Design the sequence.
């Protein structure tokens, strides 16, 4: 059979090479399947596995040196949690995330099929990674992302995407992007088969390094389910006995909000794997991830933030006796320790509690900035200014909510009341703590 795209739901096989993003028969998920033996080629990074990639026959290859990330045994962490895992450090990819592997194969496919513009709904990482690769490919991009992403991610997206629209939630990003497809050649969803094609190289690299004699357990963020499915099907094709521990962020976890997904897009397929005990989902909250991150930095010298360390936190949480017979690989899915607010949170134990502020999102930081440089204002004025001068397109309701939360955090204070159009509105100004946050 060689290499083909096959529908996970109905088994439909795409024979010829063409641009397609879902099963033409049932609308299901298409995924690369291969009966080829694992053979390492001469190219570097993910392209060393061309004989196992659907996109291998497409040229030119769009690459920034993704893949071939370190796989390091972690004896010290092993002692503290009771099982010695290998750490696959995906933060070493060009934009700091495993997504770069998929962006390379997808950008290659888009270029090959002469697609010139794409729209990307995203929680942040996909937009940053793919837009970066599209820059290299000369393809224009527009991203829709929630305004709650970290400032770090918001700025990066603004830097690499040709157009960015900030919206209230990922669901809104998705619906707005779908409505704008007439202006773009295509929309890229996380389920795009050419994206998944590249993700498969994570499992391929692991098997190539560790062999396939012992059963394998891979710990990875569950997100929308795409990564877990891509890993599962590679291991099935290579006939490796395996289990995937999928990490889900708790709902109220500001530090993990970039990996929080209310309902995985691929729930239908994940459920089947869960029923066969091939996938197990574990929830991880901020304090657990932060503790794991601290463990990684202080015990192993891995500068990785709470998102990247969440897999170690999950492993620690659900470790059972029968898991100890498995070769375990925890994926540090990205998140190198770069965000100053996250580093500050990690230092939490050494700074005074009132200065220990968890990372704020883009909109909240913008509100603080406006008040730091301007006069006290009521939320309606803030909403108007953010919209007109900063191009921030979020609803009034969201601004009111952010202001209330900032008051609660002690970053804003009420300095008076003003009657506008018959309604009494709070006038707020920034506090000293708020100014400190911006420094
Ligand atoms: Zn199908």
Sequence:
């Amino acid at each position: 059979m060689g290499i083909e795209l096959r529908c996970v739901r109905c088994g439909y096989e795409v024979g010829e090479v063409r641009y397609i993003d879902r099963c033409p028969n049932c609308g299901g998920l298409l995924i690369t399947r291969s009966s080829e033996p694992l053979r390492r080629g001469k190219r570097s990074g993910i392209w060393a596995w061309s004989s196992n990639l659907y996109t291998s026959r497409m040229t030119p290859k769009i690459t920034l040196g993704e893949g071939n990330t370190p796989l390091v045994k972690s004896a010290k962490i092993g002692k503290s949690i009771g099982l010695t895992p290998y750490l696959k450090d995906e933060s070493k990819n060009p934009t700091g995330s495993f997504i770069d592997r998929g962006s390379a194969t997808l950008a290659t496919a888009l270029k090959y099929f002469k697609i010139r513009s794409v729209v990307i709904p995203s929680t942040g990482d996909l937009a940053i990674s793919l837009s970066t690769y599209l820059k290299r490919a000369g393809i224009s991009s527009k991203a829709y992302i929630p305004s709650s992403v970290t400032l770090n991610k918001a700025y990066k997206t603004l830097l690499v995407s040709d157009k960015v629209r900030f919206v209230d939630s990922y669901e809104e990003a998705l619906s707005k992007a779908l409505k704008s497809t007439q202006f773009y050649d295509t929309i890229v969803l996380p389920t795009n088969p050419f994206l998944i094609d590249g993700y498969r190289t994570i499992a391929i690299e692991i098997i190539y390094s560790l062999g396939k004699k012992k059963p394998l357990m891979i710990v990875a963020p569950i997100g929308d389910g795409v990564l877990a499915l891509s890993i599962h099907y590679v291991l099935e094709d290579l006939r490796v006995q395996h289990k995937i521990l999928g990490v889900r962020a708790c709902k109220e976890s500001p530090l993990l909000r970039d990996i929080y997904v209310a309902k995985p897009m691929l729930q239908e397929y994940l459920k089947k794997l869960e029923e066969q005990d091939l996938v197990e989902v574990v929830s991880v909250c901020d304090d657990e991830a932060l503790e794991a991150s601290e463990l990684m930095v202080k015990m192993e010298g891995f500068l990785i933030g709470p998102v990247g360390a969440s897999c170690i936190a999950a492993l620690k949480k659900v470790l059972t006796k029968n898991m100890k017979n498995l070769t375990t690989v925890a994926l540090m899915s990205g998140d190198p320790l770069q965000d100053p607010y996250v580093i500050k949170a990690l230092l939490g134990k050494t700074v005074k509690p009132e200065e220990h502020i968890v990372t704020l999102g883009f909109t909240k930081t913008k509100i603080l900035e406006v008040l730091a440089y301007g006069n006290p204002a009521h939320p309606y004025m803030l909403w108007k200014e953010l919209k007109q001068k900063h191009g921030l397109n979020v609803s009034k309701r969201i601004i009111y909510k952010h202001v209330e939360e900032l008051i609660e955090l002690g970053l804003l204070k009420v300095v008076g009341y003003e009657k506008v159009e018959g309604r009494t509105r709070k006038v707020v100004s920034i506090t000293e703590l708020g100014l400190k946050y911006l420094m």
